[in-house]
Amino acid sequence: MSHHLLTVDSLNRESVDYLLRVAARMEPIAQRRQVTRVLEGAVLGNLFFEASTRTRVSFNAAFCRLGGSVCDTTGFTFSSMAKGESLYDTSRVMSGYCDAIVMRHPDQGSVAEFAAATNVPVINGGDGPGEHPSQALLDLYTIDKEFQRLGKSLTGAHILLTGDLKYGRTVHSLIKLLSLYDPLRITLVSPPGLEMPSKLIDLVASRGHRIEQCDSLANDFADLDVVYTTRIQKERFTDEMNESFQGLSDDFMVNRDFLDQRCSQSTIVMHPLPRDSRPGANDLNVDLNGDPRLAIFRQTDNGIPMRMAIFATLLKVDELIEQELRPVRWYVPTQTGTLDR
Ligand code: NCD
Fold this sequence. Notes:
Layout: H1 13-30, E1 34-35, E2 43-48, H2 54-65, E3 69-74, H3 87-95, E4 100-105, H4 110-115, E5 122-127, H5 133-150, E6 158-162, H6 169-178, E7 185-189, H7 198-206, E8 210-214, E9 226-229, H8 239-244, H9 256-262, E10 268-270, H10 296-314, H11 321-324, E11 326-327
Parallel strand pairs: 2-3, 2-4, 4-5, 6-7, 6-9, 7-8, 9-10
Antiparallel strand pairs: 1-11
Bound molecules: N-carbamoyl-L-aspartate.
Residues 54-55, 126, 132, 135, 169-170, 231, 272-273 line the site of N-carbamoyl-L-aspartate.
């Protein structure tokens, strides 16, 4: 694993399995049963030039739960980039202040350009339609945990990815990460014009996976183990696409009927979130809230141990965690959300 995390291309099966194991060791801290101070004195720079709730806050919380502190800046308006500062200068400046940097930026390749100017570990928190490696790692960690609970194996699993597969960076990173594992069956369902880039399809096929594409959810999909839905990334559309795209039709909606008719009791439903809950968006339906197959909030919770694992590994304190653990002293509810099962 390189000293940055910019793309899942820098990971292999061994380094991914290692991160999954480190994340599992972080669970007592993430679940607020124990505390550690292994990153005491360390400072994280969290630079977000695009909208974010969970990625920004969970990277921040993960660093704090390891005992570090966080400095952050959000949006171009309040950063010196609004005065024309280059990525190179910003990177060099931030490296003098921080021990690790997470950056999200609307341009593909920008986080790699930023990372090229520093020896401080940089994590790509999403670069336009490019990649989102930490999300893919927490998604894989979620699949692994859910499959362990359900007594399933990843080998031969059937995974359906749907929604905006062209601009959705989470699915770009996830499909590459999944392709490191034993042969899978992957079905891609997207509206015309929003298909997965063909170079990613070719890569996955060349690694021996069975990959099929279709343009509607109204098909019979045998034995689905995971349904991974994504939001339409309208903010990345060209003006021409914005004019021609009428919105996601309701045949793309993953809801209770879809699950009851086309999935089994052991299918899990994932989404990187945010889901667009506005009327007519036809994103993942809220009628599944409270259904145990809906794994989206277990998935967001898993962002903390996985991001802690990424920091601990990049900052080389992964071996020190167990030596540092102490019990928590504050009140923690036994169940985080009111509908959790
Ligand atoms: C995603 C992103 O920003 O790529 N969100 C996230 O980080 N969990 C997905 C999206 O915005 O649709």
